[in-house]
Amino acid sequence: MNLKRMAWGAGIAAAIVCAVSGTALARNPHCSGGILYVTQGMRDKDKGDAESYMRQMNKAVLELEQCVTEDPTEYESFGYLGWAYAELDSAAKAGKAFDTAIKGLTEKGDKKKVDWASGNRNSYWARAFNAGIQAIRDAQNAYPDFTKKPEDEAEITLKNEAEKHYKQALASLTAATQLKPSDPQTIRNLGSCYAFMGDFHRAEAVFDDGLKAVPGDTTLMHARASVQINLARSLVDDKKYDEAIAFFSDLIKAEPSNSDHFVSLADAYFRRAQTKEKDARAADFKLAGDNYARGAELKPGDADLAFNAALAYQNADLWDKAEAQWRVAAKTRPDDPEVLGALGSVLAEEKKYDDAIRTLQ
User: Are 214 and 220 in contact, with CB atoms under 8 Å apart?
Assistant: First the structure.
């Protein structure tokens, strides 16, 4: 996932907010009063008077809520209401108010006020988004692979620190999505944050909701596919082999040229084979070998895949197939004693003793 930070940040966006605050007052007294409370509150904030600032903003919300209830076409006041909500960290309400303002002002053709409302919303979105991205970076710096089990007390401490940062990232990115619900970049990073924590179900749900808001967005589609693959791999780790096998089999039908899908399916068969006995065990090892071999065909030069295929076939007592894959691996690793030793052993099982001796010399 691309965690690229936006080129512009909260400082620039805040300047936009201040530059447009001198807007003409609305006719409805609740509207004009609410707008006045917002502008006065921002002045108090600039002066460092936190108590007066909070009092003014709360009054602004009360007045502006009454205003837009009485006059739902007062779109400029919706913009100020969004501003007040955002200052009070009510991101969901702010996002809805800003959206109503922008749509209504657009319909009226008031470009200047559209730019003002959009700029205000973007400033709060940027703060939340950038805070979320920074928190993800801090988490990954503390404990890069969050799904890895800590090995000692030091790693437990680092993982706990990473979890704290990830929770901050989730809070910030959730607020950012509430401010701009149809922004693919924000949705992608929110889902990715869950994925980094190993919560693939939540990540998938975020991407599903995102694709409802932004149908057909390719970045979200790719992110969803990646999460689904990780989810299926977690099924293997949880020993839910049948579910994982069914999932990867469907993926192969959809993308028959993707080597990774064959390898993942092979891994599931290999792991399941280790839980079985006799013929059932051999059958799963054969299927593992078949899929590793297909993965190797699609990714020529990757000796590990041929190695795995040969090992699977060997476990199934399919010596001829094992020989073929060991020879593929040997072409890439001609001096690897492990590969040559395994090939020699297989040749001996096939009673090709002269070939075995030459291979092992």
Answer: yes
Where a domain ends, among 107, 126, 145?
126
pLDDT band, very low/low/confident/very high, at 356 (cuts 50, 70, 90) = confident
> How many alpha carbons fall within 13 Å on the CB side of residue 341?
3
Report in angstroms the alpha-carbon separations of 51 from 36, 47, 48, 57, 335: 17, 11, 9, 10, 75
Chain centroid, CA 146 distance in Å = 14
Domain boundary among 126, 142, 176: 126
Answer yes or no: is 148 within a domain.
no
The tally of domains found in the chain comes to: 2
Conformational region of residue 240, where left means phi above 0, alpha means psi within -120 to 50, and beta covers everything else: beta
How many Å apart are CA 328 and CA 358, to the nearest integer? Answer: 17
Cβ atoms 274, 239 nearer than 8 A: no
Contact 320, 310 (CB under 8 A): no
CATH of the domain at 331: 1.25.40.10
The answer to whether residue 92 sits within a structural domain is: yes
Rounded distance between C-alpha atoms, residue 93 and residue 113, angstroms: 20
Residue recorded with tokens 């949880």: 238
Q: How many CB atoms lie within 10 A of CB 9?
A: 14
> pTM of the predicted model, to two decimals?
0.78
Amino acid identity, position 348: A
Per DSSP, the three-state class of 276 is coil
- The range of the structural domain enclosing residue 306 comes to 256-361
Burial, 298: exposed, middle or buried (Cβ in 10 Å; 0-12, 13-18, 19+)? middle
Confidence of residue 359 (pLDDT cuts 50, 70, 90): confident
Mean pLDDT of the chain: 92
Count CB-CB contacts under 10 A for residue 27: 8
